[in-house]
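Try this one yourself first.
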């Protein structure tokens, strides 16, 4: 019979690519781990891993078995967590992923959660929308806060208030107004947010420029809003980013300008896996976030807290 330990050992070997590294990760000797893999293959009657130089690679049978193994181990972890939480109450570590331009949603929500459940700890990961979705897929995080759009429908999404885009220019450009029109951006060298993979804010800004009859002069693309704002502060160029991203980081030597005739807004969303058990900590975090930042579901506009 196959037991859970064998499945965990097999998954560790696949993820480390070598029995030596897997044994070190599992804090066990190499020979018994090799024996467990051999025993698993004999029980199944198939070869799961083949040696390619110094690395072990999955066979076609191994790929299917690894995929099913991970699903089973995730379900087992969810079951254990659910049972423990029913017995012990809320505690443990909540893993959250967040796009940098959405960081403003975190501090108040985390503080409110800790006020109610002081035994909760946090593990935070940062990245663009693509990376956050990958972290969810690999179970490195339980909840993500991302900028829409997202390229897949495999996650449950809960929309958060929309955020207007603003232009940000170097302070030493000495712009005399508090707002700007899109036509005034035409000749500016632009530094734009661009995802590692997929479409997002970059395409929205480029399309908005096209709607106003010009092609922007894009000097730099980067997935990190703080890097872009720092470059603006040094006078490299201007950028167009969500308004909350500017107020989040308080970077000196920049000037924020409302865009009078822009029709685009940055949309944020909570995301989590549809078929995954949500820990009590995650469910409470989402509940607080929805309470602190309620929206009109039809229009995506913030509603005042009652």
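Now uncover the answer:
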């Amino acid at each position: 019979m196959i037991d859970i330990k064998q499945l965990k050992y097999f998954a560790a070997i696949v993820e480390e690519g070598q029995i030596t590294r897997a044994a070190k990760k599992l804090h066990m000797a190499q020979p018994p781990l090799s024996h467990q893999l051999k025993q698993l293959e004999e029980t199944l009657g198939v070869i799961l891993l083949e040696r390619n130089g110094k690395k072990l690679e999955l066979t076609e049978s191994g790929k299917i078995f690894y995929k099913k193994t991970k699903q089973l181990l995730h379900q087992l972890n969810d079951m254990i967590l659910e049972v423990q939480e029913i017995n012990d109450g809320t505690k443990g570590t909540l893993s959250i992923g967040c796009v940098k331009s959405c960081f403003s949603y975190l501090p108040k929500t985390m503080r409110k959660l800790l006020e109610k459940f002081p035994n909760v700890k946090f593990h935070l990961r940062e990245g663009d929308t693509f990376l956050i979705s990958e972290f969810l897929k690999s179970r490195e995080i339980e909840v993500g806060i991302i900028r829409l759009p997202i390229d897949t429908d495999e996650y449950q999404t809960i929309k958060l208030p929309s955020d207007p885009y603003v232009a940000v220019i170097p302070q030493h450009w000495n712009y005399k107004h508090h707002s700007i029109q899109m036509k005034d951006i035409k000749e500016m060298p632009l530094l734009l947010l661009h995802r590692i993979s997929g479409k997002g804010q970059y395409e929205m800004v480029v399309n908005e420029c096209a709607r106003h009859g010009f092609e922007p002069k894009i000097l730099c693309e980067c997935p990190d809003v703080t890097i872009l704002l720092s470059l603006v502060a040094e006078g490299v160029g201007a950028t167009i980013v969500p308004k909350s991203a500017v107020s989040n980081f308080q970077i000196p030597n920049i000037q924020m300008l409302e865009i009078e005739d822009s029709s685009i807004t940055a949309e944020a969303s909570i995301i989590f896996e549809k078929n995954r058990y949500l820990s009590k900590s995650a469910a409470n975090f989402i509940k607080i976030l929805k309470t602190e930042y309620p929206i009109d579901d039809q229009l995506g506009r913030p509603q005042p807290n009652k």
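Discussion: The first helix runs from residue 4 to 16. DSSP finds ten helices and 16 strands in the chain.
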